[in-house]
Amino acid sequence: MTGRHHASCGVWRFSPKVQLRAMLSNALHQDNVAASAYVTGNGGGGDALSDTTITPTFAVARAMLEMKF
After folding, report:
1. How crowded is residue 13: how many other Cβ atoms within 10 Å of its Cβ?
2. Contact in structure between 51 and 35 (CB atoms under 8 Å)
């Protein structure tokens, strides 16, 4: 399974030569979850095993000031 991701961005123009870009990635901050299941042994007499892996994620904020010369 994959997590949902949400990104937002905005641009503020202070003058024709100066602007600020702001970006927020993974705003929902949901962890990635992967699960698997399998049966060991031959035939139907094996053990059922399962594994779940949770990978934490982080929101990332970025700001860039752009100046044209």
Report:
1. 10
2. yes
The strand order across the sheet containing 8-15 reads: 8-15, 18-25, 60-67
Query: Residue 24 burial (CB < 10 Å; 0-12/13-18/19+)?
Result: middle
pLDDT digits (tens, 9 = 90+) for 26-53: 888 788 889 998 887 766 667 888 899 9
Single-letter code of the amino acid located at 5? H
Question: Could you tell me what percent of the chain has a pLDDT over 70?
Answer: 87
> Under the phi-then-psi rule, with left for phi > 0, alpha for psi from -120 to 50, and beta for the rest, what region is 17?
alpha
Tell the residue number behind the tokens 């994620």, with chain if given: 57
- pTM listed for this prediction: 0.58
Strand 60-67 and strand 48-55: the pairing is unpaired
